[in-house]
Design a protein that fits this description.
Elements (H helix, E strand, L loop, with lengths): L2 H12 L2 H26 L4 H24 L6 H29 L1 H5 L5 H25 L2
Helix pairs in contact: 2-3, 4-6
Amino acid sequence: MNTLTLILEIFQKRTNSFIRFLMVGLVNTAAGLSIMLLLMNAAGFSYRISTFFGNSAGAFLSFYLNRSFTFQSNASSKKSGIRFIAAILVCYLFSFSVSHLLTTQYNQFFSSLPINGKNAAILIGTGIYSISNYFVQKLYVFK
């Protein structure tokens, strides 16, 4: 057993799955953004192509790391892959809807803050997405 494997095993025993989930989110975001920026700026691909491939790579990495590292799942790759895609879509629609509703219903409240409603919606939506996605992946996708 190499040193990195030992460190990861100790880390997994001492952290909860939500912390690992957030760490995986940081890793796949960094990887996806790096791919987007490289494709667009170094390879000359369009914004749409670059973001499609960057987001796809980030999602694939997220699936792999969450399956093996975060939740240590033995569920079928095919079954959990389909559930993973469905979970991402449902969590996105849920978070978008709730954050949009909150920021439009409480627009007056948000106008008194040093942040505009659209930025508030993005921040609220990201929080809702992250939390709901964690629970859906833990209780449904990788169960």
